[in-house]
Amino acid sequence: MRKAHRWHVRAGLAVTVAGLLAGTVALAGPASASPARYSPARHDALHGRTLSDRRGSGPASLAGPASPGTAYVANWGSGTVTPVATATSTPGAAITVGDLPDAIAITPDGRTAYVANWDSDTVTPVATATNTPGAAITVGSEPEVIAITPDGTTAYVANQGSGTVTPITTATNTAGTPITVGGDPSYIAITPDGTTAYVANFGSKTVTPITTATNTAGAPISTGGDPLAIAITPDGKTAYVTNDSTGTVTPITTATNTAGTPITVGAAPLSIAITPDGTTAYVANYASGTVTPITTATNTAGTPITVGSGPGTMAITPDGATLYVANWDSGTVTPITTATNTAGTPITIGGGPGSIAITPDGTTAYVTNGVSVTPIATATNTAGTPITVGSEPQAIAITPEPTAPQPPAHVTAVPGDATATVTWTAPASLGTGTLTGYTATAAPGGATCTTTSATTCTITGLANGTTYTITVVTATTTGDSPPSAPVTVTPSSGTGRTGPIVSGYHATKCADDSGDSSVNDTPVVIGDCNGSPEQNWTIEPGGTIQLNGKCMDIYRDEKNNKAPVELWTCTGGANQQWQAVSGTLVNPVSGKCLDDPRFNTADGTQLEIYTCNGGLNQQWKLP
Questions:
Q1: Are 71 and 372 spatial neighbours (Cβ–Cβ below 8 Å)?
Q2: Which pLDDT does position 495 carry in this prediction?
Q3: What is the overall mean pLDDT for the chain?
């Protein structure tokens, strides 16, 4: 049996969801038992959710995401989600989710859309590659809002009916322990660094900060009004909170979680959106029919911009040039030029425009109106043919444009007999894709080696005596990275070169096997060059440096600065590989250089590895 949906009252105007979706309202007397509140078609119409607020990255999967720019529409009345191909504005087959779906959040890799089912008390994950729903995830009562951390590890769900937030681990789609916040949580916004989730508690007149690393709630922050929406500046320093009942916006300094002086805006501010450059926050004032610009540098409100009747949600184009405002009561959308804060001609949509989402390329804004979805061409601000979806379409979100991975780092290549063993470290970012492998390429000739996850491979079939340029590319489900920084290598055959390894800092000092020992753990030290066997090193083509049948070795395969260097039985391990690079000896796996600590010339000083810095104490003349 479907739960009775609560009425939400603001300034003596009682509004039911059904009435709003039909484009009508019923007048009633002032409510004395409940706080002032307006709720146009629930979640998105209430909170002014912009596309950028919803993004995070999702669970790893070998399946690719939907095409960039696929819009997902939550159909409140039919318990479905309709995918719309934005390239052609054509709807796909409806996806069955739970009862009364009222919010959608899409991971930044575009692989998963999470749908909050208000009446089912569940969240449904939808795999966008196949548009198939996964098993429903039980959360709290009346899930209202979803926000995903920037790293995509966790989706946070505000449960309006139970005053909690449920964290969902996206890798496994499992719900964690609910986090108690305030009464009637209506919005969640997460800082750009992902460290804190801020929850607007409409019923408690507070905002609760949640530390995402531990999923613990901090002390509530009083806003002085009925907080409905939150927007955080791109630099993460300030969270702006709209207070519906007081007509103000409260700035919160995120470093200290302290509320600043409320900023007076218009009556019943419902939603807030911040420009990509962070300079201006725009506030939609439902009862005033205006939008107030706030200069974030000074927290001062500018001249209100007149729009249509009942402005609710807003969305800003990716370039920040235009703000689109959905005017619920007048059935229009008003474009505002942000450079001048001037309103353009209203665009007729019909019905009650509720949620707006803009394609990643900024060419089209999609608006739900409780009956259909209308595309608006942003270049001309003209409305296209309405798209038929499910019953009572409400929230809408669009899959993001995929981003390319970064190339591998710290690439090195060790020569062998007609081979080059290439080693690298994983890239700092895989973009919006999932790793599928790496490819190392030698030029000239184009010989390659590949791996699926390992960070080393050997290119074979090379010509001895020829110098090759080696690059490595990261491959993901959304594309390949640019090539890495190139390194050179010259394969050779036969035995290695033999002789002393002379310090570049002091030409009379050599790398030395103290005592001419062949015992494991014998330190490699600095000593006076004397031509003795204990300084007669062999530079092998395979990348090892040998003496007395032992290999120059980094102690216990450590990769940190100041790890000592010693002799050890040759094992073929990565901690026994060395590459000559611009006069230095680099261990490919650690990326560190053989180092004479602190430019020490005292005999017996043990050598170590250290971050390569070009110092003379890291320069060595090889045989």
A1: no
A2: 62
A3: 87
Positive or negative, the CA dihedral 419, 424, 429, 434 is positive
Domain 42-398 and domain 497-621, same fold? Reply is: no
* Mean pLDDT (whole number) for 320-345: 97
What is the C-alpha to C-alpha distance for residues 576 and 560, in angstroms, rounded to an integer?
15
Both structure tokens of 596: 């004479």
210 bridge partner residues: 197, 217
CB contact at 8 A, 485 and 425: no
Beta carbons within 10 angstroms of residue 354's beta carbon: 29
Query: Residues 6 or more apart from 75 whose CB is under 8 A from it?
Result: 81, 82, 94, 101, 389, 390, 391, 392, 393, 394
Tokens coding 240:
């702006």
Task: Write the single-letter amino acid at 230.
Answer: I
Domain ranges in the chain are 42-398, 409-489, 497-621
Residue 1 predicted with pLDDT over 70: no
Report residue 256's pLDDT band, with 50, 70 and 90 as the boundaries. very high
Residue 335 has a CB neighbour count (10 Å cut-off) of: 22
Closest CA relative to residue 198, chosen from 210, 184, 185, 206 = 210
Over residues 492-510, the pLDDT tens digits come to 776 678 899 999 999 999 9
Nearest 10 degrees: Cα torsion 199, 205, 206, 207: 30
For tokens 């409260």, what's the residue? 250
- Over residues 85-89, the mean pLDDT reads 93
Task: Tell me the per-residue pLDDT of 452-473, one tens digit each, with 9 for 90 and over.
Answer: 999 999 999 999 878 899 999 9
In this structure, which topology does domain 42-398 adopt according to CATH?
Methylamine Dehydrogenase; Chain H (2.130.10)
Planar angle of CA 180, 185, 191, nearest 5 degrees: 85
The strand ranges marked E within 364-408 are 364-368, 373-377, 382-383, 393-398
Name the class of domain 497-621: mainly beta
**Contact predicate 207/189, CB 8 Å:** no
Which DSSP helix (H) or strand (E) runs through 354?
none
Report how far Cα 417 is from the mean position of its chain's Cα atoms: 44
Amino acid at 136: A
Residue 506 CB contacts under 8 Å (≥ 6 apart), including other chains? 601
Is the four-CA dihedral 65, 386, 282, 340 of positive or negative sign?
Answer: positive
623 cis-preceded (ω within 30 degrees of 0): no
CA distance 227 to 244: 6
- List phi, psi (to 5°) of 502: -100, 135
- Is a pLDDT exceeding 50 seen at residue 12? no
The neighbouring-strand residues paired with 440 are: 449, 472
CATH superfamily of 409-489: Immunoglobulins (2.60.40.10)
